[in-house]
Amino acid sequence: MIPRIQKRGQRTIGLLYYLYGPGKYEEHTDPHLVASWDHNAPDPGRDATATLQQLQQLLDQPVENIDQAQRPKKHVWHLSVRNGAEDRILSDEEWGDVARRMVAAAGIDDPEAGAGCRWAAVRHADDHIHIVATLVREDGYKPDLDHDAARVQAQARALETELGLRRLNKGDGTAAKRPTSAERHKAQRQGRERTAREELRETVRRAVAGATSEEEFFNRLTTSGLLIRRRVAPSGDLLGYKVALPDDRNAQDEPVFYPGARLAPDLSLPRIRERWSAGLPERDADSAGADVRPADRPSAARKLTASAAWNALLVIERGDDAVTAAHIAAAGEVLDALAKTSAAHTRQELRAAAREFERASRSHIRAERGHDRALRRAARDLVRSGPALGHGEDGATTAMAIDMLFFLVTTTAHWHAKKNHAQQAAGARQAAEHLRSAYQAAAAQLLGALYQRGRRLGRPQLQRQTTVLREALPELAERILAEPGWYALAATLHDTETTGNDPHNLLTEAARRRELTSAESISDVLVWRLRRAADLPTNTTAPPRTRAAEPSTRRTEQPAQRRAETRSPRQ
């Protein structure tokens, strides 16, 4: 149940015309009263002798009874209460009880508190009602509406339980502002899938991802095609900014600008500057003397992204809350950057994952910036290396990056759940589902190529890998051998041996990170763990080149990368 207090108005009759009218798109059916301050109030919807003017005059009567100077400038209070599509249809009697409970909770009319305001609840659709009230009580005083929004939200949670409706998560005031009904209707008229506010928010978030200065940020906004207005102090200091879509205009044919803070709390200029305050590691400096070559190719950027995501897991599991909040916020930048630069067959799911994770990236725990530089560097590398192809090394490293980000996002969901951040945890879980779908699209061809290579292994080689599996994982071996993915795992074990690694030790270590019995395909999980631990080429269509290596110098993962109590996209 979603209660939403609308902006206060000046004309009671105007709102009544809308509530009892056909709607902007003929969507209103059978408008009628379900409850009011007086059970004898006229109902223009069901009583042919009643008029809207009669109802308006009765509602406005307490306002008219006081001196003009004492009247509120905007005396019309408007609350809509909507159920979800999956909820059952409530009867008029049930909606009437909802209305009475809501006005009492808000402070409009509580029978136990004495004199109240006049109000009426109109139903013109199965799934919602509108409550209109005038903000002068019967005794001439004004109602106490402090924190009315919080009180009606609390009442909605209680009603959900009592009426058997879907329980919504309690908000904490850190969510981005939702589009208004006017913005939604405007988007429908213009044939847009989303409102201008939503499009602008996503575009600005992508511009922020990995940026390190105001100049770079505003250059990205300009390149994306947005109109920009800067707010400058008399001293010349930049105070803020507004953005608009070129084709989103008002009745005067002027662009409709939105300040960054109205797009999302963390998109105001001061909050964006916090990300830049700690800078990025030296390797990201645009200097010719950088010691480490930047990730100038999409595949290299994705490899670094996978490593940064994997290393962030233990921080989120074990780190200080403020440091964890910074890593989670930076993970949102990585998702935005990956969605912006990935191939078409994964782009839609990655964009959806980034949108859902946006809610998980904000909470009342203030991020301690600086510790998140590796993730922000990864986001910067992704953007600067440019779009990736959907095949070859680009496609393979994309699958690996998505795999690691899935672990990171799932760990974030667990962390928020422990902190009782219900909306953030739900957002992270939804993002994980989109990442699962994106991974499946990115990895299918790659794992298929590994499967074919495994099938082509000679009998002695295949038997050798079977022996390694049984010795390293005796409890799981028979289940793995029965899986279709076994051949892909066999090819990976063969690759680790070819490159001078010890497949037995690597397999043991890969399985030790967390339990595997709940995995849908243990083979798939182990394939990516092994390929990353042994630093094997992510393009699985061809075997790696032989590399001489002594057993004592074989490559294994660092201790900080060894465990993540999260669930794989294949699980």
Summarize it.
The chain contains 20 helices and eight strands. About 5% of the residues have low confidence.
Could you please describe the fold and organization of this structure?
The strands form 2 sheets. This protein has a 5-stranded antiparallel beta sheet with strand order 1-3-5-4-2, with helices on both faces. A 3-stranded antiparallel beta sheet has the order 6-7-8. It folds into 3 domains: 2-163, BirA Bifunctional Protein, domain 2, CATH 3.30.930; 190-277, no CATH class; 298-561, no CATH class. It has 571 residues and is α+β, with helices and mostly antiparallel strands. Helices cover 50% and strands 8% of the residues. Mean pLDDT is 86; it is low at 283-293 and 548-567.
Secondary structure blueprint with pairings:
Blueprint: E1 2-5, H1 12-20, E2 32-36, H2 52-64, E3 76-82, H3 92-106, E4 119-125, E5 128-134, H4 148-163, H5 181-189, H6 196-208, H7 214-223, E6 227-232, E7 238-244, E8 258-259, H8 260-263, H9 269-277, H10 298-318, H11 321-341, H12 344-360, H13 373-385, H14 392-418, H15 422-455, H16 459-472, H17 477-481, H18 486-498, H19 503-512, H20 522-533
